[in-house]
Amino acid sequence: MKFSIETAQREEYSDIRAIxxxxxxxQETNTDGGEVDMVDRLRTYSDYQxxxxxxAKDHDHQIIGxxxxxxxxxxxxxxxxxxxxIVEVSVPKQYxxxxxxxxxxxxxxxxxxxxxxxAVSAIDNTDFFYDLGYVAAENFNIFxxxxxxxxxxxxxxxxxxxxxxRSGKIYYPEEFYGVRRAEQ
Length: 184
Fold this sequence. Notes:
Layout: E1 3-7, H1 13-23, H2 35-42, E2 53-58, E3 63-75, E4 80-90, H3 100-114, E5 119-123, E6 135-136, E7 142-144, E8 153-157, E9 168-171, H4 174-177
C-alpha cells in the first residue's frame, strides 16, 4: 500500500479524532479510552509543536494514521534535560501491519533529531517500539513518573551518547493527564 506522511493540519482535527477513536478500544493493551481528549489537551500545551504531529494518508488523501510527539523533561535532583516522547500512535485495524505506524514513528524520530533532541521516549506494553529499536529506559537509569510497568517505559537515543549523564525521571505536562498532578 502506498501512503504519505505529512504534518497534521488544523482542518484535519475532526478526521484525526475519528481515527484515534476508531484505533483505540478498551479491549486493547495500550488504552484507557481517553486518547482523543488527551490529544486535544496536548495541542494546548505551551511546548506543543505542530511539526511533531503527523498523519498518514492513502493515495486518495484520506487519513489512515496519526501520531503525536511532545517535548518532556528528564529531571533529577542535580539536572534537567529535554527529550521528546511519542504519546500517541493510531492506525485503524484495517490498515495495520502495512508499515504505517512504523513510518510515522520513523518520521517523528527524524524530526526530533533535526530539532536537536537527543532521544525519544514512549510508553508501550507491546513489542511495537521494541521492534523499532527502543529499549527499556531503565538501562539508562531513566524512570517514569507514571505508575506503569518498568518494561513499558521505553527510550531510543537519537545520537551516540545522547543519554550520557541524563538519568532521572521523565515528567509529562499536566495536559497529558487532564488534571494537575503533584510532582513526584
